[in-house]
């Protein structure tokens, strides 16, 4: 028998860079395929059953009379949020979280990262490690994740198998590296690297899942010969469904080395562009030090940026000027306008958030939100008093990123960066139900979230406006103090794949 899930309670729904909708008491129905069937925005508590009965006939008409209806009623202090999107992370580096913070990028790769990643030459090691890795990202509410594997084909197949089994939505790539890495961790040639990349793509597609897709993953320009970049660019050009992920302009030493290696190219961004690796399916991690021409080029090609503030602080790479990037890319219905309503603001220069484990020390996108906020405040402080960079005429540059923008980057912005904005990132009928049930109630046991004794017991007598204001406050508490303890359930395509309640039920 197929099941229809109906959720009754508070919903927070990102709309644009500057707005999200707060629905203190809504109904949301998920059909048996995991797709959102309908949303009732404001429902009085005494009308809930009546509304459900009214709308149920539509679902029965589509899915048969014998569907089973399962209603979940949220408590005060709980709300539904779209699942978080991690647009850049490294699965094999998770065992290294919290190690090597004394290094900057290139030394950190040599001393910390490459030794760990090389252990994945043994697929049995991957089978032991990857399930725990993927569970950690799910526990922190990441429903869609862009993973780098290692350069090993078999272990990256294991990563894809693991994600499929655990039910997360993901892009999975095998690193391409045929130079400037240690002998023990390098592919023998560009030809070998391209061959195993093609094999991985074929393997992931043979899994026949809507949730998991292959992504081309040249580690960064330094680790790839021109032949390898050219070969990957040819693959990208000939296959319009293939995503691309790589690093760009993360660290000044890395940039100098790249310019030295590719002195025929005009810039770091041009290294990728001249090899046909910049397009609307490209996710560029970091972009801390891109110059004006490079940002224009990125925007022109439709590529987007994964902002990884935890890693950028931790490896002392620098602070990406995300506000400026958003200002550059703002569009409304495909055209650039100056005085548009906030509710219509989307960005052509797509930006999402990345945990970048283990340059970043946490698999949590909530942590990335906190650091993105701090980063924007630090950038604002730095440019204050420099009239040429005045924040007055900008929407985002030189200002702290507001809650709505942070939430957008972590959900709908990340979804757009992955070309999945029509499927995930917010709640609309027809989209997949990728969602979290969040709780800020005291029984979650998170000492970083305050509530007054008795705050969540008993009925509340408040106007709709008061209820919305209170939900805004609870959302902010979660974004700045929340962790995995506050994530009760994690859904991907309507299926519960994680959260504290699932972990609890597995224990019993
Ligand atoms: Zn990275």
TrEMBL record:
Kindly list the biological process annotations in GO that this record carries. Answer: guanine metabolic process
- Say yes or no: keyword Cytoplasm present: no
- The Amidohydrolase-related domain sits at 79-495
Please tell me which top-level EC class this enzyme sits in: hydrolase
Which SUPFAM superfamilies does the UniProt entry name for this protein?
Answer: Metallo-dependent hydrolases (SSF51556)
Gene3D superfamilies named among the record's database cross-references: Metal-dependent hydrolases, Urease, subunit C, domain 1
Q: State the PANTHER family in the record.
A: GUANINE DEAMINASE
Biological role stated in the UniProt entry: Catalyzes the hydrolytic deamination of guanine, producing xanthine and ammonia.
Member of which family? Belongs to the metallo-dependent hydrolases superfamily. ATZ/TRZ family.
Its protein name is Probable guanine deaminase
Q: What organism is the protein native to?
A: Sanghuangporus baumii
